[in-house]
From TrEMBL:
The chain crosses the membrane at residues 16-36. Coiled coil: none annotated. The lineage of its organism: Bacteria, Bacillati, Bacillota, Bacilli, Bacillales. It is found in: Cell membrane. It is a single-pass membrane protein. The gene is yajC. It comes from the Bacteria. Belongs to the YajC family. This is Preprotein translocase subunit YajC. It comes from Paenibacillus ehimensis.
């Protein structure tokens, strides 16, 4: 009797691995679908928004500054805050586009 119990404990087989590593795999799958995948989607839409910036867009920076884009380079954005004030920001500092330049030109 003792010998039979020892033999089954020594050779766990596929069931032993499933019981041992199954919860870890399940936790990784849940974390992927709840945390990693949505973050990748948000990052993709943000990168698309930053690449589609153009002159005349009204934007809000991460710091909350509202302005209109006057100039664009690969890394920087020059915003007109009022009639005389121009401020230069990193392109990544733009948080949202409030209205497109094409939409405001049509008015």
């Amino acid at each position: 009797m003792w010998l039979a119990a020892n033999e089954t404990a020594a050779a766990p087989g596929i069931e032993g691995y499933l019981v041992t590593y199954g919860p870890l795999v399940l936790m990784f799958v849940v974390l992927y679908f709840l945390l990693i995948r949505p973050q990748q989607k948000r990052q993709k839409t943000r990168n698309m928004m930053l690449s589609n910036l153009k002159k005349g867009d009204k934007v809000v920076t991460i710091g909350g500054l509202h302005g209109t884009i006057l100039e664009l380079t690969d890394d920087t954005v020059v915003l007109r805050v009022n009639d005389v004030t121009k401020l230069t920001f990193e392109r990544s500092a733009v948080n949202t586009v409030t209205s497109s330049g094409a939409a405001s030109e049509g008015k």
